[in-house]
Amino acid sequence: MSHLEMRYNEPLPHRPYLLPEGYRLVTVETDADKLGWIEACAEGLSTGAWTVKDFEKNMLEPEGLAKDQIFLVKDAAGRVVATATAWLKPGNRGYLHMVAALPEARGLGLGGLLTQHVLDFFLARGVDYITLDTDDFRLPAIKTYLRLGFIPVLSEYGAEQLWRDIFVKTGLRTPVFEVQHVKKEMN
Question: What is the pLDDT of residue 174?
Fold first, then answer.
């Protein structure tokens, strides 16, 4: 497992992400919402057994985080099934944080919907740039991020090859290959 960084380059045309019928997009309001967030992140990100107190310490106390920046998707029964957070960092930077979904909610487009919602949140506030961190095995999420305009950040030794492998696995074309190809032709 390798850690990856991505940066939002510029808005790209994208298909509209629509909530499935009966689902709704909300922000954290109650302890039940916090517990739903904890469950979604434990299932989707393997965060472990957080308590409401852990949630409040890690998600509400840090500078740049607030309840109205923690977005939830609830199903028709009111259960939290997915989440994403818009963290405003110093230097007018936005950070896409804690994108997760319960296993039964995967494949519904909720990750894309939440990511686009976070991007819209940041763009409306005029942030200078937006970043995220993810893991190399989260291929569906990586495909979503790339399609929405995030680009790889080659911040560590070996990151270029790691990204090449990801593009091969996902079947997506990469501008990195094209740029390197152009450089070779110019020599």
Answer: 64
For residue 157, give every residue at least 6 positions away whose Cβ sits within 8 Å of its Cβ, in sequence order, or none.
Answer: none
Taking CA atoms, 157 is separated from 4, 98, 110, 181, in Å, by: 12, 25, 33, 21
Mean pLDDT per 10-residue section of the chain, whose length is 187 residues: 85 78 97 97 91 97 97 98 98 97 95 95 93 94 92 84 89 59 40
Contact 70, 85 (CB under 8 A): yes
Strand partners, 97: 85
Residues ≥6 apart with Cβ < 8 Å to 110: 19, 23, 73, 81, 82, 101
Q: Do residues 133 and 145 lie in contact, with contact meaning Cβ atoms separated by under 8 Å?
A: no
pLDDT at 11: 73
> Do 91 and 128 touch, CB atoms closer than 8 A?
yes
Contact 81, 73 (CB under 8 A): yes
CA distances from 78 to 36, 39, 73 (A): 10, 14, 9
Q: What residue ranges define each of the domains in the chain, with the CATH number in brackets?
A: 3-156 (3.40.630.30)
Q: Is 152 exposed, middle or buried (0-12, 13-18, 19+ CB in 10 A)?
A: buried
pLDDT of residue 171: 86
